[in-house]
Design a protein that fits this description.
- The protein is an alpha+beta fold.
- It contains two helices and seven strands; from the N terminus they run E-H-E-E-H-E-E-E-E.
- Helices cover 16% and strands 44% of the residues.
- The chain has a seven-stranded antiparallel sheet.
- The chain starts with a strand and ends with a strand.
Length: 144
């Protein structure tokens, strides 16, 4: 089991609260795959459908993108600190089920292929082993 917690994640992602969404890394395979965890409270989304609070769909996409950035940053520690990865393209995104806050989200990502500074990933999010979101996206490497 590979465990990175928030203090470790902060070394690899430029995001900070409230935009840092990944809480823990459970599994990691260099330049190939990563499994992460995100825990959100309902207080984070009180204004998003207040009568029935749901996790915003764009944050599911951001959660996968951050997990992909983590995989690339951890796998390539010798890359200059002025390099970062950002979302370049969303090829597909499918919302399978609404996600309510206070659910633990398990994020699984796989690097499908890459070309110079573009990296194509497949990502999925599960809640209680049920698939709730899938995406194929491209991260691009940029300089600060």
């Amino acid at each position: 089991m590979y465990n990175y917690f928030i203090k470790d994640i902060l070394k690899y992602l430029p995001h900070r609260h409230p935009f840092l969404l990944v809480d823990q890394i459970l599994e990691y395979s260099s330049n190939f795959s990563l499994v992460a965890v995100s825990n959100m409270s309902k207080n984070d989304f009180l204004g998003h459908f207040p009568k029935k609070i749901i996790y915003p769909g764009f944050l599911l996409l951001e959660l996968v993108a951050q997990s992909c950035g983590l995989l690339l940053s951890i796998s390539n520690p010798k890359i200059s600190k002025d390099i970062f990865y950002c979302l370049g393209s969303v090829i597909s995104a499918k919302f399978k089920q609404m996600v309510i806050p206070e659910a633990q989200l398990i994020i699984k990502i796989f690097l499908k292929n890459f070309n110079f500074t573009a990296y194509k990933f497949y990502g999925s999010i599960f809640v209680k082993k049920k698939l709730v979101f899938t995406t194929t996206l491209i991260l691009v490497q940029k300089k600060f």
